[in-house]
Design brief:
single chain; Four Helix Bundle (Hemerythrin (Met), subunit A)
């Protein structure tokens, strides 16, 4: 996550950054669960819709690797045997966990990051 870019996007508003981070920590598990459910069901349309939501969230936090994974899922043209989509979903899950850890660390810090 690029904290400088995040703060630039938020006009330096650290309170807004904290509120968004708190919201992410509550909502991201739900968004990821929706995506994983769609992958298990083999439902490409739902995969694309869930990925679109996650992409926007990742973009808000300047989390480029997560955004790229979500974009790849959103732009998938076919489900196939599901292996490629499952692999990207797993990478996305890892990236979202890294984002969660970065946000939790930033929220816990007294200085730097989101304070």
């Amino acid at each position: 996550m690029d904290f400088e870019l995040l703060m630039e996007r938020l006009g330096g508003d650290t309170e807004l950054a904290r509120e968004l981070a708190d919201l992410y920590l509550v909502e991201y598990p739900k968004q990821l669960a929706d995506l994983q459910s769609a992958v298990r069901a083999g439902d490409l349309k739902r995969v694309q819709q869930a990925a679109h939501k996650i992409k926007g969230t990742a973009r808000n936090f300047a989390a480029a690797p997560a955004e790229e994974c979500a974009r790849a899922l959103e732009e998938s043209k076919e489900f196939g045997d599901g292996a490629a989509i499952a692999e990207i979903t797993n990478r996305l899950s890892d990236e979202l966990q890294l984002l969660q850890a970065a946000l939790e660390q930033a929220l816990a810090r007294k200085t730097g990051g989101i304070s």
